[in-house]
Amino acid sequence: MTAIEFDSPEQVGFASDRWQHACDLLKQWCEKGMMPSAGLIAGRANSMVKPQLFGHHKVDGSQPIRNDAVFLIASITKPIVCAALLMLVERGELTLSDRVIEYVPEFGKNGKNGVTIRNLLTHTSGLPDMLPNNLDLRKAHAPLSEFAAGTYEESLAFSPGRGVMYQSMGILMVAEIIQRITGMTCPAFIRKEIFEPLGMMDSWLGAPAWWFEGNAPPADRIAEIRVPEDHVGQDWNWNSRYWRMLGAPWGGLLTTPTDLGLYCQMMLGKGTLKDRVILSPAMVAASTRNQLEFMPDVPEADRRCKPWGLGWRLNWPAHSANFGDVLGPRTYGHWGATGTVLWIDPEQDAFFILLTTQPQEPNGSFLARISNVVASALIKTPRRMGFHTSRENA
What is the set of domains in the chain, with CATH numbers? Predict the structure, then answer.
């Protein structure tokens, strides 16, 4: 990939005063200590604004945010891991109707034989979000294999396909299937097949050991998260070397606003960025379509009001949570517990990314407010603007 270039807000099709208002709000919130730091970027399939960074790199305010800051994006990791599995579907390695036990026989304990891969991708498996001993595993610095072993022993909250319950352990099983089929760990597969082709060179599902070596280790680029008070100083919290290296497929991706912007441009390009094909247009369409619509045993209200694609949360218009109030019905994206949100609106050929270091309550009110401002700043598409964008280097 060539060097990344950026356009002005006006060239991308944003009302400059509204874009500036979003930046001013974030700067104000950081100055008031409402969040330690934030990174904002938005754009279209073929252009994006320069990332804006605010606040402090350390929670104590001792260091301004670095211009090369890396963020732990938590659950925005999930749709990227799911995309890696969808690449294998395109290659004929499996189908979404296959049962998980066909690839991970150990999974079939305590009534889980009927769980399909589609159930994992749509949060309809009945698996738990976290294991009952999640905290104990983290305190013991357990490897992912121990989280997987715990998942094999779990029972389901409901029969597969008969409910919707957010399940991080389902995404762990997605990663396990990727490894069983390819012989590569999920982080290695994603690095080789997604990040490197897209030029996402600052993105790692689990920081490599060399990131912590030397006098100025790359790990210093990771912005510190304001963790809950009872997690401060613990060697297993979000800021610990253990968690940063674990590569949890449900929430361990380290990346930058610009790298995520490239991923969004690929999705807006129907699976292709420049000459790099990651997914087919057909798979992008399938992964961003309401999959619950075709599951008759899912409660009707969930099918209609809380739709899921394949790894992607679709827009829930009656909820302000995280995505805000302005987006159209075809919008899809995800949020993360560390204070992050990403959405893509194919109708407006637009994407938005906000990465913060302030964990959000479930509704993500900070995220939703900035989302509203940025979505309202979208006033033109490049097609209507009548010129080809000229770019300025970062």
Answer: 5-67+256-393 (3.40.710.10), 78-185 (1.20.58)
